[in-house]
Design brief:
With about 290 residues, the chain is of the alpha+beta class. The chain is built from eight helices and 16 strands. About 40% of the residues are buried.
Length: about 290
């Protein structure tokens, strides 16, 4: 069975799924995207993902003429057509196809071209994340040289790509991006966290980080469990002196960071706070989807 994709209302073989060469997402990165986890054929945190997609489209002035209900049906239809019980679904919306020009196509302020909506799915092994809870992962640090609105989830990810490649070259799982003053903002595709004296610390939302869906879910779960969460900037020096560290994302719901730039974090093993947070996280996954490792 060939893998299938969705392009502007049609489901077709991935090899035949194409956009015009002058798609603005291709030429300018003038597009936003979402990645959602699918477990037990159910989409995790779908409504928060839809809300973030709508918010980001509004920030860029892209007018997608499909409501959340029909979008949900199309996403579920594509997942079912591919037949994967566990996968990730990628959703991308560009401003559309138009003659290459920096300014928006059409008469201002209206956008007179139709946005391009594409979706793909690929199989994903979430059970590997359970196994990694025991081993932990390592991160390196890289300078944060991204644009100033990383809160908008655009496809313009070159700085993130280079940071992730640097991590891969160093045999690390992720790169944490460090701004002026030694502030750790987030990973190239994850949110960054530390634990000190039982306090769970992560960078506050704003224009400097992406408001992660997994991040928001973990804060809610931790506070409901009477754990102390601080949303404040923390430095690389604090991270290196932390008792525990971890990261979160859609494809890595929670993973302990046991080394930063080759230096051991705390005991160098998965700590008790991360274990408790992992229990809360995976229980929430089970509640929403019925999935268990």
């Amino acid at each position: 069975m060939p893998q299938l994709a969705y392009v502007n209302g049609r489901i077709l073989p991935l090899a035949d799924a194409t956009l015009h060469i002058e798609d603005r997402g291709t030429q300018f990165g003038d597009a936003v995207y979402e990645v959602c986890a699918v477990m037990n054929r159910r989409i995790l945190d779908w409504q928060p993902h839809c809300a973030r997609l709508r918010r980001n489209l509004a920030e860029l002035g892209i007018m997608l003429d499909i409501a959340d209900g029909p979008l949900t049906l199309q996403a579920r239809r594509l997942i079912a057509a591919n037949g994967f019980a566990e996968c990730i679904i990628y959703i991308q919306v560009s401003r559309g196809t138009a003659k290459r020009d920096h300014a928006f196509p059409g008469a201002a302020p209206a956008n007179l071209v139709m946005p391009n909506l594409v979706m793909t799915v690929r199989r994903f092994d979430f059970a590997q994340r359970i196994r990694q809870l025991e081993t932990g992962i390592s991160v390196i640090t890289q300078p944060d040289n991204r644009w100033g609105r990383v809160d908008i989830k655009t496809t313009g990810l070159l700085a993130n790509v280079l940071a992730k490649q640097a991590a891969k070259d160093a045999s690390a799982f992720e790169a944490w991006l460090v701004a002026d003053g030694g502030i750790v903002r987030e990973g190239s595709s994850t949110n960054a966290w530390i634990v000190k004296d039982g306090r769970i610390i992560t960078h506050p939302t704003g224009t400097a980080i992406l408001p992660g869906i997994a991040r928001d879910s973990l804060i809610r779960l931790a506070r409901a469990a009477q754990l102390q969460v601080e949303e404040r900037p923390f430095t690389l020096a604090e991270a290196l002196a932390a008792d525990e560290a971890f990261l979160t994302s859609t494809t890595s719901p929670i993973l302990p960071v046991v080394r930063i730039d080759g230096q051991k974090v705390g005991s160098g093993t998965t700590g008790p706070v991360v274990r408790r947070l992992a229990e809360l996280t995976w229980n929430e996954v089970a509640r929403q989807t019925g999935w268990r490792a």
